[in-house]
Request: fold
Amino acid sequence: MKVCFSARFTPLIATALSLLGAAAAHAQEAAAAAATAPTIVKRSLFQVLQDGGLIMFPLAAFSIAMVWLIIDCSQRTGLKRLLPADDVEKLRNSFRSGDYVGAYQTTLDNNSVVNNIARVGLVTVGDGKLATEHAIAESIAQEQSKISNRISYLSVIGVCTPMVGLLGTVFGMINAFESLGGGGATQNTGALASAIGHVLVATASGLFVAIPAFMSFYFLRNRLMGGMNEVEVEVGNLFRKFPYHLAEGVHIGDQELYANAPNWAEGGADLAGAAAH
Reply:
């Protein structure tokens, strides 16, 4: 009976011992691999940015300028700034009542785009329909150009920041390869790879600023075009069917008129005689 019991459990015991031996060997191999594996050091964002070097200072300035331009241009291209509801309603009421002098005074109360354009039109109504329409068209183009010039700086930032980041990376690569040429990194290729990884931070930072700058540029440019189209339609509706024949020669506003009659108009005969001599 005893012989039968040991014969039955001997293979199980041998199998268990072999599994224990394999597990111990695997544990030793894992411990050896962990000992030889490179240690991964967690670094903060500030430490990563420090790897970019001095070139990170102009990139930081570009990023601050980008944020400021996005906020400023977003406000300038909004309909609340281009076409304020209160200004539009005041202009409509003044035009309905024929109070064009009051409409001119209304345009001076708030420096909005629709007020600026309507003011130019009111000043030139005495010169006729063609002159008024031409002045309004020029004023629309001028107002759009002023805002568009601000938005275009986002495109400049989007173009320049990758180049600035690449410049920092090039300088860092030069230093890394100088150490390689001097034999400092020939025995430790990991140190060279780490140095190259560090200098690429500048390029990555430049792209990190450039991508939102370009996206904001195209978004705000299209937003401005749409808003200016609505302003143009509103101003066109205000001056539609304007009684230019009743306003001929009238000057609305307090702007000084510099052009006067020629100084030789009264003494034309004397001038002709002086020219003959």
Remarks:
- The mean pLDDT is 80.
- DSSP finds ten helices and no strands in the chain.
- The chain has one domain: 43-250.
- Residues 129-181 form the longest helix (53 residues).
